Amino acid sequence: xxxxxxxxxxxxxxxxxxxxxxxxxxxxxxxxxxxxxxxxxxxxxxxxxxxxxxxxxxxxxxxxxxxxxxxxxxxxxxxxxxxxxxxxxxxxxxxxxxxxxxxxxxxxxxxxxxxxxxxxxxxxxxxxxxxxxxxxxxxxxxxxxxxxxxxxxxxxxxxxxxxxxxxxxxxxxxxxxxxxxxx
Length: 183
Ligand code: IMP
Prior knowledge:
With about 180 residues, this protein is of the alpha/beta class. It has six helices and six strands, in the order E-H-E-H-E-H-H-E-E-E-H-H. The protein is globular. The termini are close together. The model has no long low-confidence stretch (mean pLDDT about 95).
């Protein structure tokens, strides 16, 4: 069933593109709203999302998305600090921290906070490895250094449709679609 307008609260064009491509066929319109919301410092992405949903309720139905890269051999760093670390160290900084490390296992997590008739949280995880060097020019953020285990390519070497099929965000969106379809 085609539903009404869904608002994605984000300032990140890359995230918005992924939402529009996957959810576009399920809503009349998927629009982006770059409105700030308080991002509390928390141990888990879920806590950040739950707090923000309270503040944004008048724009429902809406989605907020908090994601992060968790590197096994760095004890989950940058994790909930992914945004700050991207601004300060960037992909090159992560590659430097990983120099000479054999264990390059890592995961991306995406937590979608959805506010419709009800508030719901959907989580998606994708596992993969940190590459030895940056590869690809697509995507955003840590995409050039993350190779999901299902592929020989980094996310930055994929189209957003390809990435959506296997990514943390794509998986969280699948759960959201199942929930919306069951209503
Ligand atoms: P946030 O969810 O916008 O707070 O994202 C935290 C950081 O992780 C930002 O620097 C994003 O660019 C990065 N990030 C979030 N999602 C992805 C992704 O799907 N691929 C690569 N980097 C991401």
